[in-house]
TrEMBL record:
PANTHER family in alphabetical order: RIBOSOMAL RNA LARGE SUBUNIT METHYLTRANSFERASE K/L, RIBOSOMAL RNA LARGE SUBUNIT METHYLTRANSFERASE K_L
NCBIfam families noted in UniProt: PRK11783.1 (NF008748)
Keywords from the named record: Cytoplasm, Methyltransferase, RNA-binding, rRNA processing, S-adenosyl-L-methionine, Transferase
Family the entry assigns: Belongs to the methyltransferase superfamily. RlmKL family.
Protein name (Swiss-Prot/TrEMBL): Ribosomal RNA large subunit methyltransferase K/L
Pfam families the UniProt entry points to: Methyltrans_SAM, RlmL_1st, THUMP, UPF0020
Organism ancestry: Bacteria, Pseudomonadati, Pseudomonadota, Gammaproteobacteria, Pseudomonadales
InterPro entries: 23SrRNA_methyltr_KL, DNA_methylase_N6_adenine_CS, RlmKL-like_Mtase, RlmL_1st, SAM-dep_methyl-trfase, SAM-dependent_MTases_sf, THUMP_dom
Free-text function comment from the UniProt entry: Specifically methylates the guanine in position 2445 (m2G2445) and the guanine in position 2069 (m7G2069) of 23S rRNA.
Basic and acidic residues bias locations: 394-409
Protein origin, superkingdom: Bacteria
Length: 756
């Protein structure tokens, strides 16, 4: 066998440049880049060294033969011509991987089968012994790559992919492969920082992949030192003495590195479920005395144990797949930027993200960006130097101005003359007051974001006075006032509920997303609300009962008030919150008219109108709805206000309930859904088709002199003309719209109906 071999080193897309530098440093000669691979020449010692030390490669393939191929027969005979008895025993196990197509091979499974057949036929003995297939742990793993009529047949020296180091047996939902994590660390300059005894921290460490890979680099530990099974272990061309020599050298280097004083390497993770798996992974890697993991949110991580330490902050924040995710992630990235500006001055930072637009929201400029691929997802590595000249904050200032401000602040904080020590009345020294916490500047809004913020502040100023006067602490502050920012924003005491209307197909999705991020960045600043109290949902046309389906399961209720009534809202679990803000005038009307009356609330939802009726002194209230969930919610609303007796809650289909009821009511409120096909009701309810029947049934239950209020929010709804022949019908829509919905008078329509 030759002393020099052709090697192919495969890697994730985008790592080729880094891999060729690494491979040449480990001894690869005549190296050339290919897509997701590096090719070169090496002796056996170098091939082993690449297996042991490459932090970036997936596989090390030793080329056995190249041959031209026109069809499947050429493939078979090309493989058959190899002296396979030099490579494996006749009864060994085999796995074949095939890539490429052409030359009559359009199916990789068929190609792999032909390769397998040739090897088996070559090794079959007169006694019937032959290799068998083992796709998991074969003695020999063979690769054949078909490239423009040439077959390249290789032996996989690595066995399992080299990114599988063996320490990460537990992982989170979206882990980075170990070799990609190593590549990011190298691009971020960690080898240089580690050589200078710098620190490493990951504020969103997951199961600790960045930290383990970083510690192995710092400790000069071969990434695959502890791997037991290799692709060459059962290969007959294997040279055990040469491998043992290289492995011993690597073990000695690791021992020297591990005996050095450990660097300060810390990870922080918000999800408590990942803390123990991360610690287990670190322990398996033998790095427990180097790496510490703590539970904490991004805003709590403290990267420096003393004032003089510097290092690298590295993280892979989530990218977000649904809009609600992206909205919350915006604040995650903003919090990360704030923490860097506040606690990491003079450090370097590396943020790996599949959502570069989110990276721009951190309020710090990146000085370099690198493109990577995380599987099939294009990503960016943002490299940041954490110093004030890179900050993008609310006010545009020159570097000179910033420096002058820092000097002035230092001068202002320094005592003008030595301070005498102060003592209390007992003679004990008084501790000096702590230095004020550094002020974190808000990231600067884009031009569009600032315009949006200005509109919000204007609306808040106008509506805030009205709301205070009316005793209302939940109201709509914005409703697509600016068409390009198509959303509804509601204040619920000290919470903000945002509903994004789906952009029309004519709008570029990227532009729509960027505007959404602009708006979300502006909302906390404009409304003076903490970012953690902003809830975002997407409102789009719903099918069936989807509108009422649970979206989350937090079960968190917030108390709000209007007109002297306390109500519970849930901002997270459903598309709607449990309180229709646009019906506030109707609820207030019911409260004023309810004294001494029997009140019926049909399709009651969370029975907020019933609570108002009870507050107004109703003799009794009856609330009917099909949903047990909403009736339980209704019970809590009534109880919150001290109402329980004389307040009936009836579960059932409204139409069926009305047909069966013989009770009379003085005041009736009906706000039906546009459409309902609940499994618990007979047939399907359509407000346009069925409203006449509904109103006839309800009017039959109305006592002499009583009033029925009917409303709905179906934009195309038309009240049947002949109803006016049987009843006195008055449309009162304009009287049921408060100032916060004045921009959208079609939010609902309402009628007052009485007997003739």
């Amino acid at each position: 066998m030759s002393d020099r071999y052709e090697l192919f080193l495969t890697c994730p897309k985008g790592l080729e440049g880094l891999l060729i530098e690494e491979a040449v440093g480990l001894g690869l000669e005549d190296a050339r880049e290919h897509t997701s691979a590096v090719r070169g020449m090496a002796d056996m010692e170098t091939a082993y060294r690449l297996c042991l030390w490459s932090r970036l490669a997936n596989r090390v393939l030793l080329v056995l033969k190249r041959f031209p191929m026109k069809d499947a027969e050429d493939l078979y005979h090309g493989v058959l011509d190899i002296e396979w008895q030099d490579h494996m025993v006749p009864d060994g196990t085999l796995a074949v991987e095939f890539s490429g197509h052409g030359s009559g091979i359009d199916n990789t499974h068929f190609g792999a089968l032909k390769v397998k057949d040739a090897i088996v036929d070559k090794l079959r003995t007169p006694t019937g012994e032959r290799p068998s297939i083992d796709k998991i742990n074969p003695d020999l793993r063979i690769h054949l790559r078909l490239d423009r009529g040439e077959a390249i047949l290789s032996l996989d020296l690595s066995g399992h992919s080299l990114h599988q180091r063996g320490y990460r047996l537990q992982q989170g939902a979206a882990p980075l492969k170990e070799n990609l994590a190593a590549a990011i660390l190298i691009r971020a300059g960690w080898p240089r920082i580690a050589a200078e005894n710098g620190a490493l921290t990951d504020p969103m460490c997951g199961v600790g992949t960045f930290l383990v890979e970083g510690a192995m680099i710092a400790a000069d530990m071969a990434p695959n030192l502890n791997r037991e099974q290799w692709g060459f272990t059962a290969w007959l061309g294997h040279v055990p003495a040469l491998w043992k020599k290289l492995h011993t050298e690597a073990s000695e280097r690791a021992a020297i590195g591990m005996n050095k004083p450990p660097l300060w390497i810390r990870g922080y993770e918000a999800d408590p479920r990942l803390i123990q798996p991360a610690r287990n992974n670190i322990e398996r890697a033998g790095l427990s005395h180097w790496i510490k993991i703590y539970q904490g949110e991004v805003g709590t991580f403290e990267p420096r144990p003393d004032q003089n330490q510097k290092g690298l902050v590295i993280c892979n924040p989530p990218y977000g797949e649904r809009l609600g995710d992206e909205a919350s992630l915006l604040y995650l990235y903003q919090n990360l930027g704030e923490r860097l500006r506040q606690a990491c001055m003079g450090w370097e930072a590396a943020v790996f993200t599949g959502a570069p637009d989110l990276g721009k929201r951190m309020g710090i400029r990146s000085h370099k960006q690198y493109s990577f691929w995380n599987g099939a997802l294009p990503c960016k590595l943002l490299l940041i130097k954490v110093n004030p000249d890179q900050f993008v904050t609310g006010e545009r200032r020159t570097p000179e101005q910033r420096q002058a401000e820092r000097e002035q602040a230092a001068y202002d904080q320094a005592p003008t003359e030595p301070q005498e020590r102060q003592y209390n009345k007992n003679g004990n020294p008084i501790k000096p007051a702590p230095a004020p916490a550094p002020v974190v500047e808000q990231a600067r809004l884009s031009e569009g974001g600032q315009m949006f913020a200005n509109r919000l502040q204007k609306n808040l100023k106008l509506l805030g006075k009205w709301a205070k006067r009316e005793g209302v602490d939940c109201y709509r502050v914005y409703d697509a006032d600016m068409p390009e920012y198509s959303m509804a924003i509601d204040l619920y005491h000290d919470w903000v509920h945002v509903q994004e209307y789906v952009a029309p197909k004519s709008i570029d999705p990227e532009k729509a997303s960027a505007r959404m991020f602009d708006a979300l960045a502006a909302i906390p600043q404009a409304l003076n609300i903490d970012k953690s109290r902003v809830v975002v949902k997407r409102r789009e046309r719903q099918s069936g009962t989807k509108q009422y389906e649970r979206q989350s399961a937090q079960g968190k209720f917030t108390e709000v008030s209007e007109g002297g009534v306390k109500l519970l809202v849930n901002l997270t679990d459903y598309l709607d919150t449990g309180l229709f803000l646009d019906h506030r005038p109707m609820r207030m009307r019911i409260q004023k008219e309810a004294a001494g009356k029997r009140f019926l609330n049909l399709y009651c939802y969370t029975a907020t109108a019933s609570v108002h009726a009870a507050k107004g002194g109703a003799r009794s209230t009856t609330s009917v709805d099909l949903s047990k969930t909403y009736l339980d919610w209704a019970r809590r609303n009534l109880s919150l206000n001290g109402f329980s007796d004389k307040n009936r809650l009836e579960q059932g289909d409204v139409m069926a309930w009305l047909e069966a009821s013989r009770d009379e009511f003085d005041l009736i409120f009906i706000d039906p859904p546009t459409f309902s096909n609940s499994k618990r009701m007979e047939g399907v309810f359509d407000v346009q088709r069925d409203h006449v029947q509904l109103l006839d049934l309800a009017m039959a239950r109305l006592a002499p002199g009583g009033v029925l209020y009917f409303s709905n929010n179906f934009r195309k709804f038309q009240l049947e003309d002949n109803l006016g022949e049987r009843y006195a019908v008055e449309e009162i829509s304009d009287k049921t719209i408060d100032p916060d919905f004045a921009r959208n008078p079609k939010i609902h329509r309402a009628w007052k109906i009485t007997a003739r």
